[in-house]
Amino acid sequence: MPRLARKRALPLSKVYGHLEPGPVLLLTTSHKGHANVMPMSWHTMLEFEPPLVGCVISGNDFSFTALNASRECVLNIPTVELASQVVGCGNSSGAQEDKFLKYGLTPQPGSMVAAPLIAQCYASFECRVFDTRLKNRYNFFVLEVVRAWVKPACKAPRTLHHRGYGLFIVGGESIQLPSKMR
After folding, report:
1. Percent of the chain at pLDDT above 90?
2. Fold category of 21-171 in CATH
3. Are 139 and 129 contacting, i.e. CB atoms less than 8 angstroms apart?
4. pTM surpassing 0.85?
5. pLDDT digits over 89-140, tens only?
């Protein structure tokens, strides 16, 4: 039997990078005629049907104010090809500039919300705020997906997963394992 490597202590500030649940999203909002986009990696599925997504958005972010006021957004899933745009959007503020224009992202109208979809992303989920009971304490919103869009040609999207401090993992390999649930 091979000898197992010993574990070492991990600083608590690094836990997030090991538990991050899903792909980096580009959250879009629209408020007072101003569309904005921000990367978001603190999110989790809460329910299958209707699809409910919990997410944390810093109260200091321009998008927090827009989502809080409009109560709707779009969760767009970029692929690795958009990595530089994702990082650029995260390192700038929508209060000072048009991130769509600056980073070459194409807004498309949604069918149920005013926030735009991003044409370059392989999937986009139009959402409405469902619950804000944890907003004041944790900046936690619960969103209900009310319309979902996906590019059928993108069979195996290579998504970005944030590990913290500029480090990302690229996901995309699928494996099929036995399951009783379908």
Report:
1. 75
2. Pnp Oxidase; Chain A (2.30.110)
3. no
4. yes
5. 999 999 989 999 999 999 999 999 999 999 999 999 999 999 999 999 999 9
Does pLDDT of 34 surpass 60? yes
Q: Where are the domains of the chain?
A: 21-171
**Helix or strand run (H / E) with residue 34:** strand 34-40
Q: Which helix (H) or strand (E) holds 117?
A: strand 117-118
Contacts of 149 (CB under 8 A, 6+ apart): 117, 123, 124, 125, 126
Distance CA 169, CA 75 (A): 20
Listed in sequence order, the DSSP H helices in the chain are 16-19, 62-70, 83-90, 99-102, 135-138
**In degrees to the nearest 10, what's the CA dihedral of 137, 62, 35, 109?**
-20
